[in-house]
Design brief:
This protein has 237 residues and is mainly α. It has helices spanning 4-22, 35-45, 59-67, 72-75, 93-101, 104-119, 139-144, 161-165, 179-184, 201-210, 215-218, 222-236, and strands at 52-56, 87-91, 152-154, 168-172, 191-195. The protein has three domains: 1-50, no CATH class; 51-94 and 150-237, no CATH class; 104-146, no CATH class. The radius of gyration is 20 Å and the shape is globular. The N and C termini lie far apart (42 Å).
Length: 237
């Protein structure tokens, strides 16, 4: 396993290549004010590696993602022959923001960003947008503006039909890759886990589709429709 700085260098190279090669393939309107984030979101939604955690503010959409590939065979543990329990993680974003803002590292991140803006007129007027420090950057850029250690909760406009359909929200990680996992075990955590009885999964999958939460709605293209047909096949055969 490579070091985190080495992984950040690889991510930066992929981020640059994704924009360079994706310009001719992208049909979405990229807002100039948010282009750096827009391309990063597109990377995440098209299966490229990022530090983004993609979550949804739609409860049924989250449930769909928890169960979308959970057929009877997929739920069975071949070692114990028992059924595994799928889970939905519930996040309170405002509580998470408050907790992150309570750490002294966050105040330091803000001050470093303000100092950086003073030296870079391109970011004039964005003194409070310290989250930009979390974007992919090469080694030279990170030497001038280190990648923050803490994650940050993001809230930007939906740029694609897919992002909008999934009611996507994002958390981007910093240098501490396990911070959110550790948050789960903290007192008064902003995270909770709901465990789902595996015996109920087939019925819930059907009920989600009947409620209008299906693969073709969340992925509004022919690939999504094809996967939905496959799910119906798996549930009915």
């Amino acid at each position: 396993m490579q070091s985190i700085p080495d992984l950040l260098n690889i991510e930066c190279d992929l981020y640059d290549d994704f924009q360079r090669c994706g310009a001719q393939l992208c049909n979405e309107r990229i807002e100039e004010a948010y282009r750096e984030w827009d391309w990063y979101y597109l990377m995440q939604h098209h299966s490229a590696p990022t530090r983004l955690l993609d979550w949804s503010d739609g409860a049924l959409i989250a449930l769909h993602f928890a169960l979308r590939n959970k057929t009877k065979d997929a739920l069975r543990d071949e070692t114990t022959k028992s059924l595994c329990h799928p889970s939905v993680y519930v996040l309170d974003p405002e509580r998470l923001k408050d907790r992150l803002d309570s750490f002294p590292e966050r105040a330091a991140d803000r001050e470093r960003w303000k100092d950086y803006v003073k030296k870079h007129p391109f970011f004039e007027g964005r003194e409070d947008e310290y989250e930009y420090a979390h974007l992919p950057a090469d080694e030279k850029e990170r030497h001038e503006l280190p990648t923050p250690s803490l994650p940050v909760v993001l809230d930007y406009p939906h740029i694609t039909r897919r992002v909008a359909a999934q009611r996507s929200r994002f958390v981007v990680f910093g240098m501490e890759e396990s911070w959110l996992a550790e948050e789960l075990g903290r007192e008064n955590s902003a995270l909770r886990v709901i465990s789902i009885n595996p015996e109920c999964v087939p019925d819930i999958r059907v009920e989600l589709r009947e409620s209008g939460v299906s693969e073709s709605v969340i992925y509004p293209d022919l690939d999504g429709l094809g996967r939905e047909m496959n799910q119906i096949w798996e549930d009915r055969k």
